[in-house]
Amino acid sequence: MKKKVLIVGYGSIGKRHAQILKKLNIVSKIYVLTKQKCKKFIKIKNFKEIKNIDPDYIIIASRTSDHYKHLLLIEKTLKNKIILVEKPLFKEFKRIKIKRNKVFVGYNLRYHPIIIFIKNFIEKRKIFSVHINCHSYLPNWRKGVDYSKSNTAKRKYGGGALLELSHELDYLQLIFDKIYKLNHVTVKKISNLKINTDDYVNIIGKTIKSNFCVNLNLFSLQIQRKIMINGKGFSLEGDLIENTIRIFEKNKKKIKKFKVDTEYTYKAQHKSLLNNVYENSCTYRQGVQLMLIINKIKNLNK
Fold first, then answer.
1. Dihedral of CA 4/268/229/178: which sign?
2. Measuring CA to CA, how many Å separate 101 from each of 25, 239, 255?
3. Nearest Cα to 89, choosing from 110, 60, 125, 111?
4. Where are the domains of the chain?
5. CATH superfamily of 113-259
6. Dist. CA 103–CA 108, nearest whole Å
7. pLDDT means per 10 residues in the chain (302 residues)?
8. Cα distance between residue 70 and residue 72, in whole Å
9. Is it true that domain 3-106 has CATH number 3.20.20.10?
């Protein structure tokens, strides 16, 4: 049966979701709740219209600072729906009792074949250390948008490297189990970017399976998104930009290449949720637990 979709918010990520969803055969109609111009989809102006629409699948793609109130309103208004909240779940650690709907968080990198491969590869191996780097240049994130006026640039909207790049913390826990110790934390602004939030994050700690170091920034002109693992008898490098994995063993080196375009993980996430397949998705409970970790990181940084 074809599904009706509602997207709350029509910024860059809302538009991306809409463009990807319209290509899926399982989707019949796409409604967008926004104040912006929206000619390609069915526009609605307020939450009062949601009950009449009765969507099957709702995506909350509003500002991070608005996620909490929008999820609370939808949870109270609708029942037996699938709700995807864009990452991060909230601006800060909060809880909502979810009883009426199924809620997931948009950590779509869980669907990346490199993340899936690594999770399976290390399952029964001894891991010594994990290094994760995500370095990017914020002014180049969104074409035609002044980065200094974006939500990412503003603390009050839930911007900054720690929240915006929390994919890395999510897949760290997905692959190596829960973070249980934080040894060192640095979260601050160190560049000349015109933003009023953090642009540099360095976290050293332990998960149940390994020691780890996560380094994030918004100011690097050398774009990088890598995970490097050292374990008993092997080293591995996963490159999420080049879409390659290099595995180094004593006298051997293997290179695996993956065909992944920029829509792949979003499409895989939507297809799974629309078909009621939930095993790879970040659950609401996992999203809340990650917000608790982020809250601890912020407190240690004070």
1. positive
2. 24, 36, 43
3. 60
4. 3-106, 113-259
5. Dihydrodipicolinate Reductase; domain 2 (3.30.360.10)
6. 14
7. 95 95 96 91 92 96 96 96 97 94 98 98 96 97 91 94 97 97 97 97 97 98 97 97 96 95 97 96 97 96 80
8. 5
9. no
